[in-house]
Design brief:
Length: about 850
């Protein structure tokens, strides 16, 4: 039988087989360490020359198909960690030394996120040791975007190694391979050697704080969410829309007729309303989130009948769009943005005079008003409603672009990622000037006018020595008429012209001694809605009619507190040890006799300040019979640039000296019991609380650190502010450089002086904190437990740097109350450490 053959195909097949054979021989000839090899629990391999171990950790709240690593910029055999369940997954690998980088996060099969090629996801694996590059944190916000970054949680990684690979943990040192050094792994090993009786990591956990006794005001009463969370006044000034939160899953829009005091519910939602916008005087539009992650825009319109009564009709705007702005000269129209089929955003005019007009509207590329722009995601209009400024996505950041008139080309104004010293607070009627607050090259934060055409500051609108402007007050036609700033703890409104100052005089006369903040004003500026509060008065909403010179209360943010009596706060002026003028605020509970004192330092510490507004935390402590001392130490906001700059480099030293000076002055001027004192703080305040018990060990009976920094160096490798080169440069500018100041940062970190903390400690922290990672509390807990001073405390799932959930706030402050009652009640000879007890949880 004769067979025909294709000689070309045969030759190609022989060539392919030859190449495959040659490639296989090459692979066999490669050393074993050319790939990453997982080390299973119980295995104790020996490292060959040029090999190292790497502990890989991935923290995800969704299941992942896998994550991939590159080596030396190339796809690397074995560099895939597969089958990851929600939570934190660890793996240990043997791998060749070299430079590695996270390459991809895979949701399903080959679909996922390609990580950008940057230093943020690179690390170097050194031979002969265990390298820990940090946890790869992954929190998707949608199928196309998410929060990703590297977070240093070395203690958690060491715990896993010690439990899963005890032989290798004992044999090799662990090195953190992030952007900054981490001395803690070596410090921890030495501490373990010094404390051979230390409890195993699995047995160390926060014990619940003592339950509080009877409380004059229940935490559930003081720490509820504010009822009124937003508002919008129509141009005529007679209809006020209020966004109201009735309970956890019940939001609604209430309409208050300021001329008749009639009130009605316009809409309800299980989620917060994101935006409210008046289209003329009689149509209110609002944005509501829906379950698929996209917002919908709805509205309600009033038509006045022959009988003079309003009839309300619902409006439903096209799905998939969002409101840009109203058109003041065309009351029945708005600017509405939609995403077209080609992916571009189109801003168009939408007629909302009726549902029929809305239904006739179609998004068309030729009708858009944002012509001449690409990748634009936000827009600003002039007083006539014309687009003049646009926010455009460029590379990994955003750029503000401007045009002189309709039809003119857009040009760049500024990059929005670098506005740390320039805060826009308003826009002129012609949109040719940006009003901003800045201290760049100035002694304090001044109000300035920035010309967008010349890209320069052209005028200083307000400047006062040692006073930081908080905000701009604008009148009709967007005219700048005044500013607000803090003076002696109170928010002050200053008006530039005597004609405008009649507003200030009317407000001061109607509401003396209050902090006043304008929330809305109508088109002619004669109808004003404002917030008013004081240290002992919860915020209230007022309506001021300038023609009638009359103000009346129209709403309360915390109506459940109505009729309760609260403790007023006083300003304490004094000087620091070096003569620096300082302010603090003292809140005394009613009653005779010396009061126990709670020192309550604020967070920040740079650019944050306490004030004489209503503070639920201060009032809760005062209701328990404790005096409260809050100090605006050096670095606090409101006192000018030199005062802020004086706080830099003063962490754990001069700042705490200022707090100490305040304590001395408060004890000299107020009836305080020097034998009953605790310190409570959050964030930097939590750090300060721990530092003060180390520096003044005999003064305090206890300390509470809420989301507090325990390790200053860790803050540079486990914080959202350190996830970019720019962010790290800013941290170094504000807080110092760990590479140059390592010894000083160790010396001022409570963690490395754990054995000097002799008082009982309470720690509280959210497990999803991106600013101050829970690793701070994990490390502090471990070391205090090792020293025999096991802290009590609470950890909160799904909470970040703050406590957004009401139930969590109630649990936190109930715990603080029980802890303070235990240690501030009655005489006590000397502070005593808390005895160790069985754990309740080990996050």
């Amino acid at each position: 039988m004769h067979m025909r053959t294709n000689t070309g195909a045969t030759a190609a097949g022989r060539l392919a087989r030859t190449l495959i054979l040659a490639l296989g021989l090459c692979l066999l000839a490669l050393p074993a360490w050319a790939r990453m090899q997982e080390v299973k629990p119980g295995q104790t391999p020996e490292l060959a020359p040029g090999e190292g171990l790497v502990v890989v950790a991935v923290d995800t709240d969704v299941a992942l198909s896998g994550v991939e690593l590159n080596k030396d910029g190339k796809v690397f055999g074995g560099g895939t960690m597969s089958g990851l369940k929600p939570g934190i997954s660890y793996r240990l690998y043997i791998a060749p030394a070299g430079d590695y980088a996270w390459r991809r996060v895979l949701l399903i099969s080959q679909f996922g996120y390609n990580l950008r090629d940057s230093d943020e996801f690179r690390f170097r694996l050194e031979p002969g040791q265990i390298t820990y590059p940090g946890d790869l944190l992954f929190r998707p916000s949608s199928f196309f975007s998410g929060d990703m970054g590297m977070v240093n949680r070395a203690l958690a990684a060491m715990d896993w190694l010690q439990q899963t690979h005890p032989v290798l943990w004992a044999r090799y040192t662990l090195r953190y391979a992030g952007h900054y050094p981490d001395p803690f792994p070596e410090f921890y090993r030495k501490a373990l050697a010094q404390h051979p009786d230390a409890r195993p990591a699995a047995q160390v956990a926060l014990r619940a704080p003592p339950a509080p006794g009877a409380l004059p005001i229940a935490p559930a009463t003081l720490f509820r969410d504010s009822r009124i969370t937003g508002l919008s006044l129509n141009p005529r000034g007679d209809l006020l829309a209020l966004q109201v939160r009735e309970r956890k899953d019940e939001w609604r829009i209430e309409l208050l007729d300021l001329s008749s005091d009639q009130q009605r519910v316009l809409a309800t939602s299980v989620d917060p309303i994101r935006q409210m916008l008046w289209a003329g005087n009689d149509a209110l539009l609002f944005t509501v989130p829906v379950k698929n992650g996209r917002d919908v825009v709805r509205g309600i319109r009033a038509d006045t009948g022959a009988d003079g009564k309003r009839k309300w009709s619902p409006l439903s705007l096209p799905d998939g769009g969002f409101l840009v702005d109203a058109l003041p000269q065309r009351p029945n129209q708005v600017l509405y943005a939609t995403t077209l089929s080609n992916g571009d955003n189109a801003v168009q005019v939408l007629d909302v005079s009726s549902q029929a007009a809305i239904d006739r509207w179609r998004p068309r590329l030729r009708d858009r008003v944002n012509v001449g722009l690409e990748r634009d995601v936000g827009w600003l209009t002039d007083g006539e409603g014309r687009l003049r400024l646009a926010i455009v996505r460029r590379d990994d950041g955003y750029v503000l672009r401007y045009r002189d008139s309709e039809g003119a080309p857009y040009r760049d104004v500024m990059t929005l990622d670098h506005l740390r010293d320039f805060e826009p607070v308003g826009l002129s009627y012609a949109a040719d000037e940006i009003y901003a607050v800045t201290d760049d090259g100035r002694a304090q934060r001044d109000l300035v006018a920035y010309d967008v055409a010349t890209r320069k500051i052209v005028r200083t609108l307000f400047s006062r020595s040692g006073v930081d402007v908080v905000d701009l007050i604008q009148g009709p036609q967007r005219t700048p008429i005044g500013v607000t700033y803090y003076e002696s703890g109170r928010l002050v409104s200053h008006y530039f012209e005597s004609a405008d100052d009649r507003v200030g005089r009317a407000l001061s006369a109607a509401l003396p001694g209050r902090n006043l903040q304008i929330a809305a004003r109508n088109a002619d500026g004669k109808q004003i809605v404002l917030w008013a509060d004081a240290s002992d008065q919860p915020p209230q909403l007022y309506h001021l009619d300038l023609d009638k010179r009359a103000a009346r209360a129209i709403g309360e943010t915390m109506p459940w507190l109505h009729g309760m009596t609260f403790a007023p706060s006083e300003v304490l002026r004094f000087k620091g040890r070096d003569g620096l003028p300082l302010e603090a605020f003292v809140t005394l509970p009613p009653g005779a006799g010396p009061k126990p004192l709670v020192v309550f330092p604020h967070g920040g510490p740079i650019g944050v300040a306490d004030a004489l507004g209503f503070d639920p935390e201060t009032q809760f402590l005062a209701s328990m019979g404790y005096a409260v001392l809050r100090v605006n130490f050096r670095g606090s906001d409101g006192y000018g640039r030199a005062f802020r700059e004086a706080g830099r480099g003063s962490f754990g030293t001069l700042i705490e000296d200022d707090i100490d000076a305040a304590i001395v002055q408060a004890q000299a001027r107020y009836p305080l019991d020097p034998q009953r004192m605790c310190v409570v703080g959050a964030s930097y305040g939590g750090y300060s609380a721990l530092v003060m018990t180390i520096r003044w060990p005999q003064r305090f009976r206890c300390a509470v650190s809420i989301a507090g920094v325990a390790d200053r160096i860790l803050f540079y490798t486990a914080s959202d502010g350190a996830r970019s080169a720019e962010g790290r440069a800013n941290l170094e500018k504000r807080l110092g450089d760990p590479k140059a100041e390592l010894a000083q940062m160790i010396d001022t970190s409570p963690l490395y002086h754990y054995d000097a903390i002799k008082v009982p400690v309470m720690l509280a922290h959210g497990l999803e904190d991106r600013r101050v990672d829970y690793e701070h509390t994990r490390r502090m807990l471990r070391m205090l437990d090792m020293a025999g001073n096991a802290p009590v405390g609470l950890s909160f799932k799904d909470e970040g740097h703050g406590f957004g959930d009401v139930e969590h706030r109630v649990a936190l402050w109930s715990g603080v109350a029980g802890f303070l009652q235990t240690h501030l009640s009655g005489p006590q000879a000397a502070p005593a450490p808390t005895a160790a007890a069985a754990p309740t949880a080990a996050p």
